[in-house]
Amino acid sequence: MSKITNEAILDALRVVEDPDVHRSIVEMEMVRKVEIHGSRVKVEVVLTIQGCPLHHIIEQQVKEAVLAVPGVTDVDLTVGTMTDEEREKFAAKLRGKEVSQSPLLSPDVHTEFIAVASGKGGVGKSTVTANLAVALAKRGLRVGVIDADIYGFSLPGIFGVSEVKPAVVQDLVMPVQTHGVKLVSMQFFVPGNRPVIWRGPMLGKMLKNFFQEVHWGDLDVMLLDLPPGTGDMALDVHSTLPKSKELIVTTPQNNAADVAVRAGVMAQQVKHEVVGVIENMAYFICDHCNEKHYIFGKDGGATVAGVLKTELLAQIPVAEVTDRQTGIFDEGSVQAKAFEVLAEQLSQKLALNPATVRSM
Prior knowledge:
- This protein is α/β, with parallel strands linked by helices.
- 32% of the residues lie in helices and 21% in strands.
- It has helices spanning 6-13, 55-67, 84-96, 125-138, 155-159, 200-212, 232-240, 254-269, 300-308, 334-350; strands at residues 17-18, 23-24, 31-37, 40-47, 74-81, 112-117, 143-147, 168-169, 172-173, 176-178, 181-185, 221-225, 245-250, 274-279, 284-285, 292-293, 312-315.
- The longest helix is centred in the last third of the chain and has 17 residues, at 334-350.
- The two termini are 38 Å apart.
């Protein structure tokens, strides 16, 4: 039997990547210790933060890689957390391959940007953004979400991660990962319920920071949850992401539809393609008769799509008020199924093909 060496173990572990930064755990010095006791190998791996949501992926891959080394019969794996000094080295290596401009903002980036807009508040735009993101991620796409509604941020609450704080490795922010989606929101950086009191130029700076100071890794699609209306943040998105496309969210009421048209016209004026309209709270399905009841009116989404010369991609049913802890609809619900269909349509329309099929 050939002798097991530390070099052989480290060589085997080079194929294991941190799923967040897509770099080898050996290269990033995440393997703190290797000990060999006969045919048994002890390995200590350290992660950037305690309770990393992707730790189980690394654990499984580490065990599989070590057990593939000839002579190894057992792996004793310990997963710990980096010290401040180790985080510094990690950040330095990560920054070593960073460019001055965020890779997501380079002209040749393959990420598809989709801004989700509405003319007025209260139409469920953020709920649509969150559930669409989850549905796209379930298709195997690598999805990022920016909560660009700086004043009215709500996505952390919808995803159920309001109390979570993103890891910061030196000055580089790691997005919060939940439901297979990478998320950044102003809410993560504002203590308590304190309001954000900023003027236009500061909003644009924060949007750029969400790209520049966050390590997104490779993404297939990035959704941006815009503030309602046609204000400064919408203009900043248009200037920062000239190739972004837009989805317009409305409800069936005439007044919501009229205002939604303005948001769509603004997108078209700055040469952003409006890829479709989503009519939220379109109808209610009665538990007793199983029929659709149009409690908020009818055809608002079709009206908006007609004026903007685009498609009505989805009509999302009204959800019952339940005691669920998040705004993500339960799998199998009529709302979740509607978002799955929407994600499929959007994927086909924009040729969004999963680069990798992941299990989060």
